Amino acid sequence: MLEPVSAERQRPPARRAQGVTLLELAMALAVVAILGALAVPSLGARMERQRTQAAAEKLAGDLAEARFEAAQRGLPLTVRSQAGSGWCWAVATTPTCDCHTGQACLIRAVRSTDHPGVRLTQGQAVQLDPGGSANAGAAGGATATVFETGRGERLRVAVSALGRPRLCAESGNWPHVPAC
Questions:
Q1: What does the pLDDT look like over 99-119, one tens digit per residue?
Q2: Chain centroid, CA 105 distance in Å
Q3: Reduced 3-state DSSP string for the chain
Q4: Domain at 120, CATH number
Q5: Which domain holds residue 158?
Q6: How far is 168 from 146, CA to CA, in rounded Å?
Q7: Stated pTM of the model
């Protein structure tokens, strides 16, 4: 004999709801917010290091270009950097040419406004002779130009006796930059 089918057996199985609940969504957003808050300080430090490194590389590039241009012109050129809050550097035909004012002796100038958030803490003047040599004692005998982040990480741009610029890390975490 056949047994009668109960009402419970005739109903199709209940389908589970798909999607996420509001509580699950809120928890996921909270985790993402916490991870984001942890990443922001390291991202800020990295951006600051990149801006500082870009300024130091720009100065090294200007030094190399001025060395070539001195040889091409057959005349000595001076690259003079001035430290301070309104720092700058200039490629000029005379050692006394000021990078803050537009003078006829000025070939190129880079100012702190071109690299916001970057500090130049030590300046130098380098005379690049047409024969390829450099005299770093042109103004006060400074040996290097030093850039610094707000966290105290320092990059140095030094010039060899042959007029070749070299970028090195005095302190801090600088990927792809050798230590001094």
A1: 887 788 899 999 999 999 899
A2: 29
A3: CCCCCCHHHHCCCCCCCCCCCHHHHHHHHHHHHHHHHHHHHHHHHHHHHHHHHHHHHHHHHHHHHHHHHHHHHCCCEEEEEECECCCEEEEECCCCCCCCCCCCCEEEEEEHHHCCCCEEEECCEEEECCCCCEECCCCCCCCEEEEECCCCCEEEEEECCCCCEEEEEEECCCCCCCEC
A4: 3.55.40.10
A5: 20-171
A6: 10
A7: 0.75
Is-contact 126 139, C-beta < 8 A? no
Number of domains in the chain: 1
CB atoms within 10 A of CB 43: 10
Q: How many angstroms separate the CA atoms of 82 and 122, rounded?
A: 7
Q: Which residues contact 64 (CB under 8 A, 6 or more apart)?
A: 164, 165
User: Is the backbone of residue 56 left (phi > 0), alpha (psi -120 to 50) or beta?
Assistant: alpha
The pLDDT of 32-55, averaged and rounded, is: 83
Question: Which candidate, 180, 58, 178, places its Cα nearest to that of 118?
Answer: 58
Residue that is written with structure tokens 């850039």 in the block: 147
Look-up of token digits 């690049």: 128
